[in-house]
Amino acid sequence: MGNVYFIKAKGGKHMKVGYATNVERRITQLQTGNPRRLKVIAVVPGTRQLESAYHQILAPYRAVGEWFCLEGKVRTLLRFLEAGARPADIGSLCALLDFEPEKLWLNEVKGVQRENRERALPHIQKRLAKRGLTFADRMG
After folding, report:
1. Which run of H or E residues covers position 87?
2. How many separate domains does the chain show?
3. Would you tell me which of 5, 29, 70, 85 could form a disulfide with 80, CB atoms 3.0–4.6 Å apart?
4. Beta-carbon count within 10 A of 125 CB
5. Predicted confidence band at 130 (pLDDT cuts at 50, 70, 90)?
6. Cα 66 to Cα 27: distance, rounded to the nearest angstrom
7. If pLDDT is split at 50, 70 and 90, which confidence band does 109 have?
8. What is the average pLDDT score of the chain?
9. DSSP H/E element including 113
10. Does 77 lie in the same domain as 40?
11. Most distant CA pair in the chain: distance in Å?
């Protein structure tokens, strides 16, 4: 397991959510290509799946790649992180940001054609179980 990290450029209007097993080395790599000094806001022990959940929840605020505009839920998350909150599981993250975990399930299903969903359901359930999520069997 690695870490989900949150960084912000000094004076910048964006926050990056990333995953690394060695955060110090990753920040050094990112700093090389950034003219502004990068500041680590928080590091949360977690998996790539947790990082993916953060990305999905913050998707409406995506600027580019893993960088998100500091507004809405991103600003809320930043305030919680700066206050010491460390949501290290998807349930806590969803509760903190008032996000319905079922929407993560819908993102898993998106792209699976309706006629293939019944066959894909066990696979999707396994992936969600790894993230600590469950859902009612409804294929909507």
Report:
1. none
2. 2
3. 85
4. 16
5. low
6. 14
7. very low
8. 78
9. none
10. yes
11. 50
